[in-house]
Amino acid sequence: MARGNRTWRDVDGERIEGTWRHVLYREGGDYSLRDLFIYADGMVGFWRLMPFDEFERDIAAYAPELPDSGTASAYDLASWTFTEPRTWLTAERLLADVRDDLDRLNRRPDSTDRCHLALDAFRAQPDETTRAALRAAYLAIPEHRRQFALGDMDHHDWPLQALAFGPGGTFVLRGEEHAITADVHDRALAYFADGDERVRQYEERNPPEPTGTSLPIDNVMFPNGWPDDVGVLVLRNTFPSPILVGGQTHASVAEAWKAVEATVAPQARTAVMATLLRLKFAQHPDLAETLKETGTARLIYSDLSPFWGHGRNWMGRLLELVRAELFVHHDEPVHQHESSTGMFDQKGIDH
């Protein structure tokens, strides 16, 4: 599967999330290593995108059988000749994986998720009707992915098989077939009960953060310009909110920071950035209200810099500082905030 391989494309200003995976593509008698792109709107391909049903009709080209002595290439990288080639990516496997990719991109349960839902239903009401539903959901997982369904490489998926096929059936573990006896079935039930208990104990020791106490401020790009309503994204430094700094107007906090960054000593970075943020929200009361509406939430600022963004999250922490100041000094006029900084002149930092 293509978990973690994120990409996206722009369609009329809308960001379409996607993922990608490697395939060996056959074109005539030639084979080439390609990146196959899959997007949430169902478009699939590389040099040309096509609807999923068209991709499905041409699937043999994307998961071909590899002939002995056949040649393949990776553009601008290498070429080679097959000798006793083997491929694990059959057409059926690729189609099943792409279907799962599309489900995840659209935030729908994929085949493994649906099996877990069926497992929950069986454990809540263990009868032959729910077992049949569990068995169908298990068999719907691509065969090469079933052993990963429980995320347990010691046991693989035998407890899941034992419940899906029931006493009298068989399960396969590491290539060997085993009978499902009543005892095996009971041990499978105990496996899941033990897992529930481990989760309960973990959550007891590590209580999850209450819902709503963390608020991400994502790094989202708008190639065709910022929309009218971007919510908390107005808190990003790149949001167009002109600020007056030492007599000079900058289009945004990001532009103001760019103008002075080279003159700022490392130990003064947070102080200078805090000043810029204070000016932004003092000079734009509507944006200040948006910041105040975040309440006491921890602000998580997404940025490539581990200092400002994920990692040390200094930008999120500074926004929280300015938010606290806004609640304390909400009646102060804007000019007091600017004149009180004492840090900027016409040229930038006043050393």
Structural class call reads alpha+beta
CATH architecture of the largest domain: Orthogonal Bundle
Radius of gyration of CA atoms, rounded to a whole number: 28 Å
Could you tell me how far the N terminus lies from the C terminus, measured between alpha carbons in angstroms? Answer: 55 Å
Structure write-up:
- The structure is a single chain.
- With 351 residues, the chain is an alpha+beta fold.
- The protein contains 12 helices and 15 strands.
- It has 3 domains: 6-105, no CATH class; 111-205, no CATH class; 215-349, YbiA-like (Tetracycline Repressor, domain 2).
- The strands form 5 sheets. Strands 1, 2, 3, 4, 5, 6 and 7 form a 7-stranded mixed β-sheet that branches. Strands 8-9 form a two-stranded antiparallel ribbon.
- Helix 4 packs antiparallel against helix 5 (128-140) and helix 5 crosses helix 6 (158-165).
- The protein is extended and about 80 Å long.
Protein traits:
351 residues; Tetracycline Repressor, domain 2; seven-stranded mixed β-sheet; 12 helices
